[in-house]
TrEMBL record:
Chain residue ranges for the region called Disordered: 1-43
Protein name: Phosphate ABC transporter ATP-binding protein PstB
GO molecular function, one term: ATP binding
Organism lineage: Archaea, Methanobacteriati, Methanobacteriota, Stenosarchaea group, Halobacteria
Stored InterPro entries: AAA+_ATPase, ABC_transporter-like_ATP-bd, ABC_transporter-like_CS, P-loop_NTPase, PstB-like
Biased composition (Polar residues): 1-28
Organism: Haloferax larsenii
Keyword set, alphabetical order: ATP-binding, Cell membrane, Membrane, Nucleotide-binding, Transport
Pfam families (alphabetical): ABC_tran
Amino acid sequence: MTETTQSTDTEQAAESAQTSDIEMQRSGQPLEVTAGETREKTRDEWTDYEFEGDAKFAVEDLDVYYGDDHALKGVSMDIPENSVTALIGPSGCGKSTFLRCLNRMNDRIKAASVDGTVELDGEGIYQDGINLVELRKRVGMVFQSPNPFPKSIRDNISYGPRKHGDLETGFLANLLGRSDDEEVEELVERSLTQAALWDEVKDRLDDNALGLSGGQQQRLCIARALATEPDVLLMDEPASALDPIATSKIEDLVHDLSEQYTVVIVTHNMQQAARISDQTAVFLTGGELVEYGDTEQVFEDPQSQRVEDYISGKFG
Ligand SMILES: Nc1ncnc2c1ncn2[C@@H]1O[C@H](COP(=O)(O)OP(=O)(O)OP(=O)(O)O)[C@@H](O)[C@H]1O
Ligand SMILES: [Mg+2]
């Protein structure tokens, strides 16, 4: 079945609204946008979004289906390294689906099938022979609800590196004249400091992590993700369950982390996206990426009428 026969009236209307100025010129139609018409930036224009530095991810023609449901449609975008990319759009437009494609978390969903290419540092992550454990170590993830393990704060941090065999233990540690404990202590302090939680918990590292507040738990989960030394941090609405003070701590943290990490963050909070991100991708209902560019430009001068309507609250 082709995409055209599958698409609904609304989707067809959305597709036809993407007629570019060039196409209009070719077809002899006037260029002026009159009442009721929608001017959309052409796909070529925003796909060519240029940024400084290298691309961490290059996503090309990404389609995701859940059974017969076409959740993401032909998404192409490059994500620059060491910066914050915000993904925004109404509920159900495919933001989480897209995020999960970046570390193949969709593999865990039986009904999901993924087409297209996703390259991380120039290497296709969907090609055969990719080590998924290694991939997810490089591309860490933080979820909407904080989900610490029911263990001590210290054990939450050391769990990942221990599992990956990155903590020098026993014989090796002895050979290097260190004890396993020293390794753990260094790792715990470094990760918690990076996640701006160290000062609040340094005297209670053996306490159960579930005794922390929600905001502290979320920063612990960020520290846990950082402990395996990833390059990329994927965050799916990490502050949506938190109060304004905890939210602002997470926002500051995301900003600081982007000096060293590539952060891709889903948020429903448009002010938050505008505050913390360098570039913003707007997905709209139907699983399309409708606009992508510098955050300031997307919010202040969106090229797509639908994005302008969404941002100004006219629809969503
Ligand atoms: N595990 C799944 N099984 C089947 N369909 C799914 C699954 N996850 C998502 N979908 C469908 O894919 C589409 C996109 O969902 P997704 O969760 O990516 O949206 P979202 O933009 O993250 O929404 P929200 O803002 O509500 O979190 C939706 O139609 C949803 O019903
Ligand atoms: Mg989601």
